[in-house]
Amino acid sequence: MTRAIIVVDAATVRPGRAGPATGSIWVSLGELSFPMEGWNDFVVVILAAWVGAMVRLLRGSTTRERVHFMEGPYFVDVLHPAEGPLRLRATGPPMRAERACVDVEASPLVESLLSGSDAVLGACRAAACWTSDAEELESLLPALRRLATQLTEQLPPQDEG
Fold this sequence. Notes:
Blueprint: E1 4-14, E2 22-29, E3 32-34, E4 40-41, H1 43-59, E5 64-68, E6 75-79, E7 86-92, E8 97-104, H2 106-126, H3 132-154
Antiparallel strand pairs: 1-2, 2-3, 2-4, 5-6, 6-7, 7-8
């Protein structure tokens, strides 16, 4: 199974001129960085989309979510079957080509979303670029934290020998 995490660089968060804050955000799917390492986009908006999607998937409200990157025709479909791991399909140009299709454990992805969101929200406060998008992201985090705790409790014990 491939390890998938959301990577953000809170040091790159900047207030938007007429919109949401921007910053570096991408998905690490094993060896692949999608859309690419250092991708600059509307970091708060994308994190809120990821967090909302994961909450719905882990609650079982849906089995499929699509999260778009805003700057370009890139998106990730996240599928959560009744049994088994999450499946992530990363798609982008040209011609909406599938760049990766991997099965991943939810826990590392969720943990990266929580830590990345906390870092980006802290950067937004520090840069005085707190917006309704930041409010939305912040309001979604408690539900994801509860679900993260449930995921951790469901993990099999680690063999220490």
